[in-house]
Design goal:
With 314 residues, this protein is an alpha/beta fold. It has a single domain, classed as Aldolase class I (TIM Barrel, Alpha-Beta Barrel). Helix content is 30%, strand content 16%. The protein contains 12 helices and 11 strands. It has a 9-stranded mixed β-sheet with strand order 7-6-5-4-3-2-8-9-10. A two-stranded antiparallel ribbon has the order 1-11. Helix 1 runs parallel beside helix 2. The N terminus is likely disordered. Bound molecules: iron/sulfur cluster.
């Protein structure tokens, strides 16, 4: 008997009306995805640290987003390759709390370069030996280490006593092993950009690192689920204040993030928004690419105002 296989069409989840309109009824600004250059994985909100400002609300044992397993990641790595992905990137929580992290990297590095955002403290440091063989894979592995402030005392206020020195140790060891590294810090209210640059380069030099180490600065994104008042971004704003080129540089225009929420894998619009179900675009990357992304979340304003981006590809 001939059996015809009919593919099941999964409709995208219904969106709230706020996805489409501002509170005053104007049409929202949207970003139209044009490529999947970078695929991010959220490795889960468990972390060895409990920083009060964490945009993910991560802390030890946290399960808001669950730990990524190899079996969760592999189908998305495979699908992303069919869509022309150029890089895989990983964020948390602390990615090295996820016990499958090395296996996932080992697989992904066969196909594309990878980047891992890490606090470079104990979970990473105790796996340095296991990371070494990854230097021999066909593609490069890059680490971006969080250093909130160039002043150890100020860094440790949020992250805990001794964490600045530990993060610098992890960063230096990665560099000495031959991995490429960069640093992420918060925009500092108590220092001008040029003072910040000079002070970080002094810290890097004193630690045996290149003083011109690449640094990415982020505004305060606020903890997840917070209702932060920001100006609303309308369609008109996106045409008046942005260009075709600047719209294409938004993360949600060229990347996606895979999230494990309530045990289900979902494709979210970007790395910055995983606390609003409207941004769960689809269950497959292919379906997600057809979905325009609304700029309704308060973090979208950081992209609009500062050009905020977790990516190092643009
Ligand atoms: S936070 Fe930025 S990248 Fe993410 S959906 Fe909003 S505009 Fe796009």
């Amino acid at each position: 008997m001939d059996m015809k296989i009919i593919p099941i069409q999964v409709a995208p989840p219904a969106k709230s009306s706020a996805w489409y309109q501002t509170p005053s009824g104007e049409p929202r600004g949207f970003i139209q995805p044009h490529a999947l250059d970078e695929l991010w994985f959220h490795t889960g909100t468990a972390c060895n640290l409990a920083c009060p400002f964490c945009l993910e609300g991560s802390k030890p044992g946290d399960t808001r987003l669950q730990l990524l397993r190899f079996a969760d990641a592999k189908p998305y790595i495979d699908e992303a390759l069919t869509l022309g992905v150029k890089q895989f990137s990983f964020t948390g929580g602390e990615p090295f709390v996820a016990k499958d992290m090395l296996r996932i990297l080992d697989y992904a590095l066969q196909y594309r370069p990878c980047m891992v955002l890490t606090n470079a403290t104990e979970p990473l440091i105790k796996r340095l030996k296991q990371l070494k063989p990854l230097l021999q894979r066909p593609h490069a592995l890059h680490f971006r280490v969080s250093l909130d402030h160039f002043d150890a005392t100020k860094h440790d206020i949020g992250r805990g006593a001794g964490m600045f020195d530990l993060a610098l140790q992890g960063l230096r060891e990665l560099h000495e092993m031959g991995f490429s590294v960069s640093v992420a810090n918060q925009m500092l209210a108590d220092s001008t950009p040029s003072e910040t640059a000079v002070c970080f380069s002094e810290v890097f030099r004193a630690s045996g690192l290149p003083e011109d180490l690449h640094r990415v600065e982020f505004p305060d994104f606020h903890p997840p689920g917070l209702d932060v008042a920001t100006p609303q971004i309308t369609t008109n704003c996106m045409v008046t204040y942005q260009t075709e080129d600047s719209r294409r540089a938004y993360m949600c225009a060229f990347s996606k993030m895979i999230v494990k929420d309530k045990g289900r894998m979902r494709v979210y619009a970007c790395t910055l928004v995983d606390d609003d179900a409207d941004y769960a675009l689809a269950e497959t990357l292919t379906a997600s690419m057809a979905e325009p992304v609304s700029m309704k979340h308060h973090r979208c304003y950081s992209c609009f105002k500062y050009g905020a981006s977790c990516s190092e590809m643009r």
